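Exercise (ungraded).
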Amino acid sequence: MISKEEYERLAQAACQYYKRAGIVLTTAEKERIEIADFGLQDVEHTGLQLIVYVNTDRVCAKEMVLLPHQTCPEHKHPSTGALPGKEETFRCRYGRVYLYVAGEKTPNPHCRPPHGSEAYYTVWREIELNPGEQYTLFPDTLHWFQAGSSGTVISEFSTHSTDETDLFTDPRIKRTPEISEGI
Amino acid sequence: MISKEEYERLAQAACQYYKRAGIVLTTAEKERIEIADFGLQDVEHTGLQLIVYVNTDRVCAKEMVLLPHQTCPEHKHPSTGALPGKEETFRCRYGRVYLYVAGEKTPNPHCRPPHGSEAYYTVWREIELNPGEQYTLFPDTLHWFQAGSSGTVISEFSTHSTDETDLFTDPRIKRTPEISEGI
């Protein structure tokens, strides 16, 4: 859960990142920026700001902001039966993001998991994305990502987004955001 | 068919529009900008510049540029049997675009079809998109669009893109670009 004040502060910070990235949002969009704190009460370290542009049955597009060194925790988008899980392409628009996926561990990775959550970060192949660079994640791929020291703005192009089906490595995590007062 | 010189000129113009929109492309992307002249030999009026970021079986994302008053001609993305046609969301990033779809004709529309092609423009409900504004087109929806006087940059978020299945109102149109010399 985050406070209304924290929501406002982070949403305003996200707007500044969008502006730096040259991304124009409508007034209505600025008022519905989402803050994900993943239920860990430590949004500065484990958290994500985002605006969802469109999310139909077939296509989703969003623009995510991570503050400097902020982390989106490890998770995957599972397939269920014949229904394939979410596929997503991350495209860095501003700053730098380090993306971690399964595979041979990168020696001396740039990032460390948030303090106290180390046990829930298990994939260590590092992919560095600078503006204009992108990476496609297919369903059932464990991944996590962290912004570099300047923060980052990342476009996500994907199939339908259903946050409630995401599988996080950390069992403490709740994806659905809770805000302490109505906003 | 367009000449190599025309390709280079339009690709460079597109790069300038991307820069104005704050969109960063990699060097490799700048070298594979696509110019669609639709086979009408009049690319300044009927044409489109674009870069495809990703096009998997499920998701496609691209960034389109239209020069001032340049038009993407009327077409639709048909469903075939049980397979639904392409769904696409246009999001204006820079300049202004006028999108035309089926529905009640807008009085005094801002655009006119390219000279000599008037017969092949049949839908006249006008949707004006300025930066940050977007519109979603579901399959089988006839549409065309034209840039305003400053040109435009438009992101497209969609299902898999298969240009060869597009149905154009104008039977003279060929979607697959042809360039007179290898590039």
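Further reading is listed at the end of the chapter. For now, observe: Chain A has a mean pLDDT of 95. Residues 38 and 175 of chain A are 5 Å apart (CA to CA).
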